[in-house]
């Protein structure tokens, strides 16, 4: 099993990163790939979880140890798979997530794609009282520098692609797109963070 890896960030897509270590490019699925954009072609340290199934070996990446631990707690809940866990972690508001679990606010949790009422209640049941050791102000929410060479339209398109990869429906994205066009964002990461906040208001 891997704990973390250190290597060159060689590719950023709407759903995953490629990190080159010792001449091998590793595909890591992450909650918000564009959080790492400013580190493109630089060496990064990323925490890793390896999931082994009959048909695939998949790597999931995290900006820090707290984010990884929160992911592991989420996938321990019946009904929450890795994709749903990443969609939950894509929101900046990890503090809000922990608070919702601790205060039995299942309604907050159903705003995430793939989380119905029954699953939300299961999250509260399984994790309440078990998240106190996790920091909610970790580097996972840190803003990265913007890439000035990409147009605002391109940034927004990339953000929408990332949201599709997280499981948000075309209907949900169409609802927030007009508001997103009014945002003066300077990076895909910024558009993505804003879009997630808009989606959480539904």
CATH topology of the largest domain: DNA polymerase, domain 1
Total domain modules: 3
CATH superfamily caption of the largest domain: 5' to 3' exonuclease, C-terminal subdomain
Topology order in helix (H) and strand (E) letters: EEEEEHHHHHHHH
Low-confidence stretches: 136-150
Instruction: Name the strands of the widest sheet in spatial order.
Output: 1-2-3-5-4
> Mean pLDDT, nearest integer?
87
Question: CATH top level of the largest domain?
Answer: Mainly Alpha
Class per helix and strand makeup: alpha+beta
Fraction of helical residues: 40-55%
The proportion of strand residues reads: 15-25%
Number of E-state strands? 5
Shape: globular
Q: Between the first and last Cα atoms, what is the distance in angstroms?
A: 39 Å
Q: How many DSSP helices?
A: 8
Family: Belongs to the RuvA family.
Organism: Isobaculum melis
InterPro entries: DNA_helicase_Holl-junc_RuvA_I, Hlx-hairpin-Hlx_DNA-bd_motif, NA-bd_OB-fold, RuvA, RuvA_2-like, RuvA_C, RuvA_C_sf
Protein name: Holliday junction branch migration complex subunit RuvA
């Amino acid at each position: 099993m891997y704990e973390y890896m250190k290597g060159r960030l060689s590719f950023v897509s709407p759903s995953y990163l490629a990190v080159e270590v010792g001449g091998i490019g590793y595909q890591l699925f992450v909650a918000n790939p564009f959080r790492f954009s400013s580190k493109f072609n630089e060496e990064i340290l990323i925490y890793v979880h390896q999931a082994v199934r009959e048909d695939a070996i998949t790597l999931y990446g995290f900006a820090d140890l707290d984010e990884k631990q929160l992911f592991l707690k989420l996938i321990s809940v019946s009904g929450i798979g890795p994709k749903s866990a990443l969609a939950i972690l894509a929101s900046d508001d990890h503090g809000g997530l922990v608070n919702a679990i601790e205060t039995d606010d299942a309604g907050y949790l159903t705003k995430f794609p793939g989380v119905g009422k029954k699953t939300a209640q299961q999250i509260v049941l399984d994790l309440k009282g078990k998240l106190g050791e996790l920091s909610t102000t970790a580097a996972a929410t840190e803003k990265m520098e913007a890439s000035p060479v990409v147009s605002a339209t391109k940034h927004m398109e990339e953000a929408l692609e990332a949201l599709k990869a997280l499981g948000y429906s075309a209907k949900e994205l169409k609802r927030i797109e007009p508001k997103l066009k009014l945002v003066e964002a300077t990076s895909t990461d910024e558009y993505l963070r804003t879009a997630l906040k808009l989606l959480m208001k539904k």
